[in-house]
User: Fold Alkanesulfonate monooxygenase from Rhizobium paranaense.
Amino acid sequence: MTATAKPIDFLWFIPTSGDGTYLGSNDLNRGPEIGYLTQIAQAVDRLGFSGVLLPTGVSCEESFVTAAALSAHTQKLKFLVAIRPGTASPAYYARLASTLDRVSNGRVLLNIVVGGSPAELAGDGIHLEHDERYAHADEFFTVWEELLEKGSSTFDGKYIKATNARLGLPPVQAPRPPLYFGGSSDAGIEFSVGRVDKYLTWGEPPAQVAEKVKKVRAAAARKGREVSFGIRLHFIVRETDEEAWAAADRLISKLDDETIREAQEQFVNQSDSVGQRRMAALHSGRRDKLEVSPNLWAGVGLVRAGAGTALVGSPKTVAARLREYQDIGIETVIGSGYPHLEEAYRVAELLFPELGLSREEQRAGFRNEFGAKHIFAGGSHGGNLKVVSGS
Assistant:
């Protein structure tokens, strides 16, 4: 890391719809049991990640409930919890957010999710066209923010009506927990720059991210606001570039062409997300065009909706690619990898030192038998401890 480089705020992902070793295969899959999710949360808390993202959707465990459960087993970890306007009233979501912020002692971040599959949204009772959903969200968060910041709200809008709504107990964070948002459409950007604190993008090539950052900054400036920026990426980090690319190939080694075709058709036919279309356009479902930018690999997006790209390489290589995004204005990274428990360790142990981030044990000069040989004289029940350099 250069002397002037600012450390990146690095979050991880909680796979509340399940985890696994191979994409598009039932082999070595892991369900989203709370015990396993707790393992991941405790590991990333200890490893030095600043927070975790919990997604939303019909295939996911409910984000607020899961975050509340995990907060009891962690110390510093923040929880970026998905909130979808329209699935409940703004007053109810205000109570959820405020309670979770108090239960976790101020460790709540909120990720606004407006888009997605129209069919899934309809199942949640949201029957609005793409751009109209953002007009609805703007009214929703007008009431929600007033409740969090002032404790009461009365609003008579086209979509939202609230008469003397009240919030009995305020959040720990004042005036409210930070708001995050990701969306590539013009309507989404216009909505976000009016109220969010951090704008998120999926892992597109740096030139495309730079174009988006410029567009969002200009839109925010027209409203007299500034926003910060984050990026959502998968990571495949190994000690060498060759090992990392071999791991990428292994991740999709059990993925057949029919599964890819079905997934791509589903993304096109069941989503009106502009961001999803941009992700799919990077590779067009083709295995032979997966490195869409140096070390930016789109193999995950062959079958996974949403974030579909991974940075692949050695610690030095991946750190260099992240610095390119940082030069554009990216301050926050939300990472993930398959499986999420093991890959969290690889990212923390291999990549964090290159980014100027370190585990508490490293800062304290911790060493164990892999860094020094511990020789006990007098058997296993006592004696003098001698430490000699490991070979």
Remarks:
- The longest strand covers residues 228-237.
- Residues 373-391 have pLDDT under 50 and may be disordered.
- The radius of gyration is 22 Å.
- The chain has one domain: 9-360.
